[in-house]
Amino acid sequence: MTTLYLVRHGETVDNVKQILQGQEPGELDAQGIAQAQEVCRQLKDEPIEVFVSSDLKRAIDTCKIIAEPHHLPIETTPLLRERDWGDFTGKHIPDIDWKKSWPDNVETLEHLKSRAQNFLTYVKVSYPDRVVLAVGHGIINKAIQSVYFKKPMNEIQKMTNAEIRVLML
């Protein structure tokens, strides 16, 4: 059985400003770096064998901090990227009218959940019976858990920055 430590990236400058980052790179702030360091401290003695990250900067930077005591390389994958928010990207979240029709270039929930399923399959097939830590983002991590638990997205609690959840694949 594969153990998956699913982690959300640390806090970013745009998280604090309530800017919808989507697939923008993002930059950890001092709090985000401290959060990643705390996860590193918590998991430094765990037998993690593989580190996988979204290919977006904020997730890679978080993963590098967590992986440091393990001296292992980090693999990146676009499967773990945050939801593509299309024309909503870069907008101030409180100013978005979520009830209005959404831009056509926002990634659909179906596509998001398909990526989540593909990620779970990838981990299970590529790393059977291994311990894997993956750093993703709020919505993709929610989609991964939605697929894993076979529950609707709205029944999965959103992860806070640098939160860890463990899934057994």
* Distance between the amino and carboxyl termini: 6 Å
Q: Report strand %.
A: 15-25%
Mean pLDDT: 97
Structural class: alpha/beta
User: Using DSSP, what is the number of strands?
Assistant: 5
- Element-level helix/strand string: EHHEHEHEHE
Total helix count? Answer: 5
Shape: globular
Helix content: 25-40%
State the low-pLDDT regions, or none: none
Strands across the major sheet, in which order? 3-2-4-1-5
Gyration radius over CA: 15 Å
The main pleated sheet reads as:
5 strands, mixed
What does this structure look like?
- The chain is α/β, with parallel strands linked by helices and 169 residues long.
- Helices cover 36% and strands 15% of the residues.
- It is built from five helices and five strands; from the N terminus they run E-H-H-E-H-E-H-E-H-E.
- A five-stranded mixed sheet has the order 3-2-4-1-5, with helices on both faces.
- Helix 3 links the parallel strand 2 and strand 3.
- Helix 2 packs parallel to helix 3.
- The chain is globular, with a radius of gyration of 15 Å.
- The protein starts with a strand and ends with a strand.
- 36% of the residues are buried.
Name its key features.
15% strand, 36% helix, single chain, globular, 169 residues, five-stranded mixed sheet, alpha/beta, 5 helices
Quick structural gist:
The protein has 169 residues and is α/β, with parallel strands linked by helices.
